[in-house]
Amino acid sequence: MKTAIRTVWPAIMLMSTLPAIVLAADPADATAPVAGQEYHSPLADYQRWQYPSPGDWRAANDRVAEIGGWQAYAAEVWEASQQADAADDAPEPADHHGHH
């Protein structure tokens, strides 16, 4: 059964394109009706970039003070650098070059 379907399948696919080939307009006939084309520009909905609103600077300053000020941000960077240094100090794996 499967071999019969595999044998017939290409013929079915070929025949399914037949109506499109037969009913296609003659390209040499200038009076043949042709389907209209619709164009939508990708720039039709373009909106130029605008600067975001800066917001309330007093609220931003208050938030930074709640977090701990600039020292809190500096501590985050320092901790990250310490972790990176610890990763650099880790022993490297043994060389197994050429082994498969």
Automatic annotation (TrEMBL):
Sorted UniProt keywords = Signal
**Residues annotated as signal peptide:** 1-24
Sequence segments annotated as region (Disordered): 80-100
What is the protein name for this chain? Uncharacterized protein
Lineage in the entry?
Answer: Bacteria, Pseudomonadati, Pseudomonadota, Gammaproteobacteria, Pseudomonadales
